[in-house]
């Protein structure tokens, strides 16, 4: 009966829960879904990570390639991120070119990683103006039940945290390149950036922050995704992205930043623990 009411009157259904200070799935407003993480699940990739935020499931695989650096930045390599929302993950998406939503998420993920200084692109340069590493990070959403950005960031950082680069030698005279896959060096990373997203429900008295929103909550809050994303790395705030939704008071903004900072420590511990157990 509740599911029928949800389909016929979704706003009334949602509001009836919010007025009782609980979400339809039983969570509190500031409660996150359980996170599951698995490292190196794709054997054909250099590194990979599978992440589940509740039912939301994404997988990230990293591939390596050698290329010449850009002429305007001869001492840097490349980090290329791409997010795919395949038809399998939601009935909203169709086969064909990437949807606008997928392109937006790709841009958000790339911006968060770049702003966090997680990877120094100069560390990917092998020979200035001649040779550098290109890291292709392909992220595929297998099940979209909301808050895809947070899951993508976790999968990406967990994947790169375990990446090791083969040793490369370059002969400037003959331009011969030799790659030794048996002798590897771990990729240098700076901290572990974590994104925390919120949906903003415009209640009659004040807007309500809903942490880690699922798909239904995102729709009820007027967006095709989370309304605000806060990212931290190494104890520093490295980004706040507001994309639609209701307005927030200064106190609510501070509350969102505080909750995001607290959650960062939990996600960092999860990734480190998972990597440690994988190495045992």
From TrEMBL:
Residues 31-166, 191-263 form the Exoribonuclease phosphorolytic domain. GO terms for biological process: exonucleolytic trimming to generate mature 3'-end of 5.8S rRNA from tricistronic rRNA transcript (SSU-rRNA, 5.8S rRNA, LSU-rRNA); nuclear mRNA surveillance; nuclear polyadenylation-dependent rRNA catabolic process; rRNA catabolic process; TRAMP-dependent tRNA surveillance pathway; U1 snRNA 3'-end processing; U4 snRNA 3'-end processing; U5 snRNA 3'-end processing. One of its GO terms (cellular component) is nucleolus. The keyword Metal-binding does not apply. InterPro entries: ExoRNase_PH_dom1, ExoRNase_PH_dom2, ExoRNase_PH_dom2_sf, Exosome_comp_Rrp42_subfam, PNPase/RNase_PH_dom_sf, Ribosomal_Su5_D2-typ_SF, Rrp43. It is found in: Cytoplasm; Nucleus, Nucleolus. The keyword Nucleotidyltransferase does not apply. Gene3D superfamilies: GHMP Kinase, N-terminal domain. Transmembrane segments: none annotated. Its main location: cytoplasm. Keywords: Cytoplasm, Exosome, Nucleus, RNA-binding, rRNA processing. This is Ribosomal RNA-processing protein 43. It comes from Papilio xuthus (Asian swallowtail butterfly).
